[in-house]
Every structure is written in C-alpha cells, then in structure tokens.
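Title: Prediction job returns without error message
Component: structure pipeline
Severity: low
Priority: P3
Assignee: unassigned

Description:
Job completed but the reporter wants confirmation the result is attached to the right record. Sequence as submitted:
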Amino acid sequence: MKEFVSISVEQTQEYAERMARRAEAGDVILLIGDLGAGKTHFTQGFARGLGMSEIPTSPTFNLVCEYCDGRLPLYHFDLYRLESADELDDIDYYAITEGDGVSLVEWGDKFEEAAPDDYLLLDFSVEADGARTIRAYTHGPRSEVLVVE
C-alpha cells in the first residue's frame, strides 16, 4: 500500500494526471471513499492527463460516462445506485472494463465479484484538517505500474 496526501484539489488532480500518463487500455481503477472525499476531482485530473478537453463531472445519474477525445477512451462509472451485481450487465460493465479504454469506477468495492484480476483500488479519506489521503492498493502487475509517488 502506498499513500498520497493532498492538501488541495489541484494536488489531487496533479496526482491523477501523473497516473494517467502511465495508463493503458484495459486498466481498471476502483475509487472508494465517502461523498466529497475527492473521487471526482481525481477523475478530472486523470482525464486531463489523458488529454481530454471535456471535464468530467460526477456520473451519479448516468451510471457511466464516456470521454473519447484523449489518448485513450475514459469510462467513468458510478455504481452507487446499483442494487446487485446482475445490473452490471445492463450497463455493459464487463465489456467496457475489458475494452479499449481506462475505467475509473466510483463505489468500485460495492460488488467485489465484479473486480477484474488486475486492478488498482484507491481509497479516499478526508482528514480532520481537510487534507485528503489517497491509499493505493495494487492487485496485479498492471496496477503496480499505475501507482505514482
């Protein structure tokens, strides 16, 4: 496990941008943490690191948003409103996460059985002083490449 502490939105986004430069098609990053912990800000920085012109917003009402104008397609999932892993088929989750882009999955720990063999789990938390701590847990060789200092 590696840990990154961010004291600003900009630092969180810069961290994500550096990580995106290492991304390859098929990479899956699960984002967990309370509301307001920095998951969407991370996604915005990640998109910038892929060269996207559009700034991602929280996909809560869409379940998945697709951004395709960068180096790789970016798929931003939000599994919060899903009730069961069976619903993942309805949004083509498995085909997308195994496809041509990078998938960032908010509330990605909700269905552990849906995690691929190789993925990075980022756990976001808000500290008492307002700083954000991002803990990176690797699960496979590709995920280890994604983790940056």
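Comment from assignee: result matches the submitted record. The longest helix spans residues 9-20.
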